[in-house]
Design brief:
This protein is elongated. The protein has a domain at 29-84: Urease, subunit C, domain 1. The protein has one helix at residues 2-16, and strands at 34-43, 49-58, 61-66, 76-79, 84-85. It starts with a helix and ends in a 12-residue tail after the last strand. It is α/β, with parallel strands linked by helices and 97 residues long. The longest helix has 15 residues, at 2-16.
C-alpha cells in the first residue's frame, strides 16, 4: 500500500510540472503591434522607388508605405539606412501536375 501511494504521489507531481504553455514564434510581447522599417529604399515595383521611405507593418500585414508615414508610439522601429526593401511572393503550396 505504501508503494502504491508513493507511486501515485510521484505520478501526480510529474503531471503538475508539465509544460504550461507552448512556444511562440516571434515576439512574446503582445504590446508590440506595429513594426516600422525606416530610412530604407523601398522598391514598390520595377519602376517605382521610394528613397528614405518607411514601411509600417501591423500583425504581419503592410498598412502604410511612404516617405511621411506616421509611426505609432508602441511601434518597434528598425533603422534600415542604406538598405533596400523589395516586394516578394512566397508560395506556401506548390502544386505540380
Amino acid at each position: 500500500m505504501k508503494n502504491i501511494s508513493l507511486f501515485i504521489f510521484m505520478l501526480s507531481s510529474i503531471i503538475t510540472i508539465a509544460q504550461e504553455t507552448f512556444n511562440v514564434n516571434g515576439t512574446h510581447n503582445k504590446n508590440h503591434n506595429y513594426y516600422a522599417f525606416t530610412n530604407a529604399t523601398i522598391h514598390i515595383d520595377y519602376q517605382t522607388v521610394i528613397e528614405n521611405g518607411t514601411l509600417l507593418i501591423q500583425q504581419g500585414k503592410i498598412i502604410a508605405t511612404g516617405e511621411k508615414v506616421k509611426i505609432p508610439k508602441n511601434a518597434v522601429i528598425y533603422n534600415l539606412e542604406k538598405k533596400h526593401i523589395y516586394p516578394s511572393l512566397i508560395d506556401y503550396i506548390l502544386i505540380t501536375d
